[in-house]
Amino acid sequence: MRSDAIKIDHFDQFIARQEFSKWRDQLLKQALYNIRPERHGDLPRWQAALDRLPALTTDRKSYDVSKISIGAATEISSALKIQLKASLMELHPWRKGPYQLFGLHIDSEWRSDWKWDRLAKHLPDITGHNVLDVGCGNGYHCWRMLGFGANYVLGIDPSIKFLIQHHAINRYARETQFDFLPLASEHLPEDLAYFDTVFSMGVIYHRRTPQNHLAELRNAMVAKGTLVLETLIVDEAPNGLLVPASRYAQMNNVWFIPTVSKLIEELAKADFINIRCVDINETSMSEQRSTSWMTFHSLENFLNPNDPTKTLEGYPRPKRAIVIANKS
Ligand SMILES: C[S@@+](CC[C@H](N)C(=O)[O-])C[C@H]1O[C@@H](n2cnc3c(N)ncnc32)[C@H](O)[C@@H]1O
After folding, report:
1. What is the pLDDT of residues 46-90, one digit of tens each?
2. Are 256 and 210 in contact (CB under 8 A)?
3. Mean of the pLDDT values across residues 282-306?
4. What is the band of 318 on the pLDDT scale with cuts at 50, 70, 90?
5. Which pTM was predicted?
6. Are 76 and 67 in contact (CB under 8 A)?
7. pLDDT tens digit string along 238-261?
8. Coil, helix or strand for 3?
9. Domains of the chain, earliest start first
């Protein structure tokens, strides 16, 4: 396998940013370590799929619509559309979206736009903000943040498949105000204090130590900055925390699920202020489902068929909350 299987030029734009020069070497070293080829057997195939994407350019981009839309159907021939679809399908499963590339609809497992819609009506103005999206998946919400007026968005996610999917989209968007680094929140510098708004959506329950995660988010923010935290929650649990014995909805990396009041308590302990829960929503089988772009099992397979109010493991089915707070 080639040691340059992930091309370093993916990070050129980030490397050129003066505002991160103090931490650049540290972040880049960690990013390259996270994507070392020996850790990802499929990397050459994904890189080849990226290389096979048809060469197309467009000025038509909309980030402020449900289906992030890049290019128009009239800008691509049917032969190239087949090639585009085949290359993107090599990057299956598409979990976050939807996207529309030159009229091709990528119908992802999650209707990520529904989460954005629930959130956007409560989101303080982010016009001109520098924004960090921790655990950004393939970057769907980062595009929406740009569409909402953010000046610059850094998305971080340790999943290399998501990094590759981002590059497939950005091949056509050629966006200069959005960088994606394959990092976990633990890899952020402690003295960053740069971002006006920080999002952590669907991440905290994957961390064994939630207070550490909150500290990482806090450290990334300017004073008085805004935190948007989205997480699985339960209505009630002993001491405010459901601790799954093993899996939760078939996920083997959910360490705890808080009640909303426990979550608010933890945020206050981490020195956040103005803490408010703005949305609670039970995930429906229309929001998370198998599609032709994500053919594996999805929510309906993770619920008890005889009692869909429960997961297969007997826990309450997934419900999620969005909490907004400020750094003190
Ligand atoms: C449930 S997905 C949520 C994706 C997206 N934020 C959303 O709301 O649709 C959780 C994401 O967090 C990422 N993740 C897991 N642990 C992380 C960590 N320690 N730091 C940053 N991201 C992490 C995973 O790779 C995954 O993409």
Report:
1. 989 999 999 999 999 999 999 999 999 999 999 999 999 999 999
2. yes
3. 98
4. very high
5. 0.97
6. no
7. 999 999 999 999 999 999 999 999
8. coil
9. 8-327 (3.40.50.150)
Atom of ligand 1 nearest to the CA of 230: 8
More confident residue, 5 or 145: 145
Q: How far apart are CA 108 and CA 248, in angstroms?
A: 22
Residue 5: pLDDT above 60?
no
DSSP-assigned beta bridge partners for residue 62: 69
Ligand 1 pocket, CB under 6 A: 96, 112, 115, 134-137, 156-159, 162, 184-186, 201-203, 206-207
Handedness of CA 156, 157, 158, 163 (dihedral sign): negative
CA of 57 to the centre of ligand 1 (A): 30
Nearest residue (CA) to ligand 1, atom 1? 202
Task: Calculate the alpha carbon distances from 115 to 18, 197, 279 in Å.
Answer: 33, 17, 10
Span from the CA of 125 to the centroid of ligand 1 (angstroms) = 24
Question: Of 322, 305, 325, whose CA–CA distance to 314 is shortest?
Answer: 305
Cβ neighbors of 198 (< 8 A, separation 6 or more) are 131, 132, 133, 134, 217, 220, 221, 225, 226, 227, 228
Distance (Å) from CA 213 to ligand 1 centroid: 12
Question: DSSP state, 9?
Answer: G
DSSP E strand boundaries for the chain: 61-62, 68-70, 99-101, 104-106, 130-134, 152-156, 178-181, 195-201, 221-233, 241-242, 257-258, 272-282, 303-304, 307-311, 319-327
pLDDT digits (tens, 9 = 90+) for 112-170: 999 999 999 999 999 999 999 999 999 999 999 999 999 999 999 999 999 999 999 99
Amino acid at 66: S
Cα–ligand 1 centroid distance for 85 (angstroms): 26
